[in-house]
Write a structure and sequence with these properties.
There is one protein chain. With 360 residues, the chain is of the alpha+beta class. It folds into 2 domains: 227 residues, Rossmann fold (3-Layer(aba) Sandwich), CATH 3.40.50.300; 106 residues, Nucleic acid-binding proteins (OB fold (Dihydrolipoamide Acetyltransferase, E2P), Beta Barrel). It contains 8 helices and 21 strands. The strands form 4 sheets. Strands 6-7-8-3-9-10 form a 6-stranded mixed sheet, with helices on both faces. Strands 13-12-11-14-20-21 form a 6-stranded antiparallel sheet. The longest helix is centred in the middle third of the chain and has 18 residues. The model has no long low-confidence stretch (mean pLDDT 91). Belongs to the ABC transporter superfamily. Pfam families: ABC_tran (PF00005), OB_MalK (PF17912). This is ABC transporter ATP-binding protein.
């Protein structure tokens, strides 16, 4: 296991990059602590897999350093970094038994058979595949194949980091929650440093202690699942995380007051100094309520999603979603909306620029 540090890391697939747009990864600086559970979260094409491949040694960065426990490994090949990687599609040998698949990484390193047996049995118990050890891998279901692929990474005790690249993509939806739970359990038991790459917010937020949110090659926020939900540092984070995502509403800043369609909006606290060109209000649907007075709006549509309904309304031409329990209005109804002040934030050019009252 290792602490992983990325210093001034950049990467371009062009031989002679000339400006920031040429870089698939902009400058990245971050630390992953020894034994932590981390996720790289973002849409397809944001640079997640590129970053993972650089850390693993499959790709050399254009600039910057990768440190394992403060040792520079930037120029080391993958086999010298002691990394286990689990891919979208299970990497196992179909002609081998489950036991032999799990034993292979150990035998390949000359580990004696007594220790091999001990480690394989221990990992098989963690994965709940004890009764499959003599089964040929070709006869396993897709989720069990992925379990074995995970086990091949966890069976070694010299691994610095285990990296998962969209490991549940090909798994049936009804089985994903089982594997997510199993993976979280495995991390808590083996205490290995784990990095999980995904575009699925549920997978990231249920697995990781810290989530790195990426957009267009940049890290826009690093935080716990709670921090990302409650206080997005960027409107992209607010929109990307949550179902539905945060309302992002165009507004005006006039003499330090915020206005939406000429109505003053009370936000969480004062705006920090900014020279932004555009301003927006961010408020999650959970903190928008229907009341007797407030912002006049017209119901555009209502979606019943079980425990609550999502009411989408128009304030002028601006769409606002509210999460409502109990009785709901109908399409075309005139209603009034209120925003919970301490959850209503101001963003300038996409970045959070309001300060919560009491914060320093």
């Amino acid at each position: 296991m290792a602490k992983i540090t990325l210093k001034n890391l950049r990467h371009s697939y062009y031989p002679n990059p000339k400006d920031p747009a040429d870089f698939a990864l902009k400058e990245i600086n971050l630390d992953w602590q020894d034994g932590g559970a981390y996720a790289l979260l973002g849409p397809s094409g944001c640079g997640k897999s590129t970053l993972l491949n650089i850390v693993s040694g499959l790709l050399a960065p254009s600039d910057g350093q990768i440190l394992f426990d403060d040792q520079d490994v930037t120029d080391l090949p993958p086999d010298a970094r002691n990394i286990a990687q689990v891919f979208q599609f299970p990497v196992i040998y179909d002609t081998m038994t489950v036991y032999d698949n799990l034993a292979f990484p150990l035998r390949n390193r000359g580990i004696n058979e007594t220790e091999v047996s001990t480690r394989v049995t221990e990992i098989a118990q963690m994965l709940d595949v004890n009764d499959m050890l003599q089964t040929r891998a070709a006869n396993l279901s897709p989720d069990n194949k992925q379990k074995i692929s995970m086990g091949r990474g966890l069976v070694r005790d010299d691994v610095n980091v285990v990296m998962f690249d969209e490991p549940l993509t090909v798994i049936d939806p009804h089985l994903k929650w089982k594997l997510r739970s199993k993976l979280k359990e495995l991390h808590q038991r083996v205490k290995a440093t784990m990095i999980y790459v995904t575009h699925d917010q549920i997978e990231a937020l249920t697995f990781a202690d810290q989530v790195v949110v990426m957009q267009e090659g940049e890290v826009v926020q690093i935080g716990t699942p709670v921090e990302l939900f409650e206080r997005p540092a960027h409107t992209f984070v607010g929109h990307f995380i949550g179902s539905p995502g945060m309302n992002v509403l165009p507004c005006e800043l006039r003499a330090d007051a915020v206005y939406l369609n000429d109505t003053k909006i009370e936000i969480e606290g004062p705006a920090t100094t900014t020279n932004a060109q555009t301003y927006e209000i961010g408020v999650r649907p959970e903190f928008v309520t229907i009341a007797d007075t407030g912002l006049a709006a017209t119901v555009h549509k209502v979606a019943d999603i079980g425990r609550h309904s999502i009411v989408e309304a128009l304030i002028g031409e601006v769409k606002v979603s509210a999460m409502v329990q109990g009785d709901t209005p109908q399409k075309g109804d005139q209603i009034y909306l209120n925003f919970q002040q301490n959850q209503t934030r101001l963003y300038g050019d996409g970045w959070l620029c309001s300060t919560a009252k009491g914060a320093k």
